[in-house]
Amino acid sequence: MHKKDKLSSGLRLVTETVKSTGAVTVLILAGAGSRYETKGINGISHFLEHMFFKGAKKYKNTREVSEAIDGIGGDFNAFTGKEYAGYYVKVSSDHIERAMDVLSDMLLRAKFDPKEIDKERGVIMEEYNMYQDTPMYQIGWDFERLVFGDQPLGWDQIGTPEFIQSVTHEQFVNYKKDLYSPDNIVLTLAGDIDDKTALDLTEKYFTFAGDKKAYEFKALEPNDRGERIYLHEKSTEQAHVVAGVPSYRETHIDHWIEKLLSVILGGNMSSRMFLSVREARGLCYYIRTATDNFVDTGIFSTGAGVQVKRIDEAISAILAEYEKIRNEKVSAEELEKAKNFMKGKMVLRLEDSEEIAHLLGKYELLHDEIMRPEEIMKELDAVTEDDIQRVAKDLLKPENMRVAIIGPYDDKGRFEKLLS
Questions:
Q1: pLDDT tens digits, one per residue of 6-20
Q2: From CA 387, how far away is CA 383, in angstroms rounded?
Q3: H-helix or E-strand containing 359?
Q4: pTM for the whole thing?
Q5: Taking Cα atoms as reference points, which of 326, 343, 338, 311 lies closest to residue 399?
Q6: DSSP string of 6-30?
Q7: Which residue of 31, 60, 259, 413 has the lowest C-beta tally within 10 Å?
Q8: Could you say which DSSP state residue 212 is in?
Q9: 2-205 and 229-419 in the same fold
Q10: Residues 338-351: what's their mean pLDDT?
Q11: In CATH, what class is 229-419?
Q12: CA triple 76-30-197, angle to 5 deg
């Protein structure tokens, strides 16, 4: 069972004791994702994530940080999303103090050495180039830009080459001061640890100076440009396409119905998209339907890598599956299969203390509440066939459909005709 504590600084601590493991994950989640950026600093959230590993007061450089965790056989990593950034260390429970020591040092006392910033520019530029050369990744960002337009949710987390090459020490210091305040951070410990130990260690290691109130990201503005096709002309051997619609926020009453709808359409190898578009027609190698849900909006989409010469047929096949599920109710058997798939995958993921920490920490950070796995399963069990069709009709309206494409094409009009 989890326990929530709030320290005098405003830092929130969530502890989940898991008796079946000898490991523990220490996860820091900060409300410092790319949604908090402005145009002039697009990419700073992700770059800052890199810089936290470049040395602080006790662990002075990357080597010392790495050796501190490698030397006890631990795992550590970080990630930057649209709405939050995360940093975690997973160790055997007898090394929990090392994990707390390393993470607190980087979080509270990172140096942002200008020499290290300059070296890391090259690393991040290579990451930028990797995404540019990997259409399977880039297509998702292209679709977000199409749906959300020229505002933070529509920008790549990686940022622009211009910013990567010009960001300064002072910008890092100011951004960290603004967003990495204790009231904007959740620390989650999950695994072989008890509540008292977790609280004692947090009070020992995570002592913040000041209690500055974190600022909020700018509210999402309507994207009323009317653009429904984004065509990224590129010489490729395989075309990449995403077709979908704007969808619900994460706390929407129909959020879990939407998740089940995505599983039925393209969540696994027995889904409709996989069997129809890939197996029956041989149009693609990968195809997947998924949802991305934020605090105030979302995306429901199907992405696929398809044969260049059959791109029109592939898009039409995806749209046909959307139309079919709008107009015909799913069977009780198909819905039950989707429920069991989601619940089974959740059970498997939550064998890992890192996944437990992420689930609990994310909901606490973004929604000020804890979402338990058993609550999610209860929500899934309550979904009916009528619910699936109702949400399909609400979301998958032809007039809301948008398509992003990467491939060797220069005629945007041909794809606009498919949507009409």
A1: 999 999 999 999 999
A2: 6
A3: helix 353-367
A4: 0.95
A5: 326
A6: E-TTS-EEEEEE-TT-SEEEEEEEE
A7: 413
A8: P
A9: yes
A10: 96
A11: alpha beta
A12: 65
In eight-state DSSP terms, residue 243 is E
Under the banding of pLDDT at 50, 70 and 90, the label for residue 225 is: confident
Strand-pairing partners, residue 364, are none
The listed CATH number (3.40.50.1240, 2.40.30.20, 3.30.830.10, 3.40.50.2300) that belongs to domain 2-205:
3.30.830.10
HEC letters along 269-337: CCCHHHHHHHHHCCCEEEEEEEEEECCCCEEEEEEEEEEHHHHHHHHHHHHHHHHHHHHCCCCHHHHHH
Cα within 13 Å of Cα(130), Cβ side:
7
Cβ partners under 8 Å of residue 335, min gap 6? 260, 264, 383, 384, 385, 388
What CA–CA distance (Å, rounded) separates 169 from 354?
31
Helix crossing, 169-179 with 44-51: angle to 10°? 100
**Beta bridge pairs of residue 190:** 16, 25
Tokens of 297: 């909006």
* Residue 288 burial (CB count, 10 A): 17
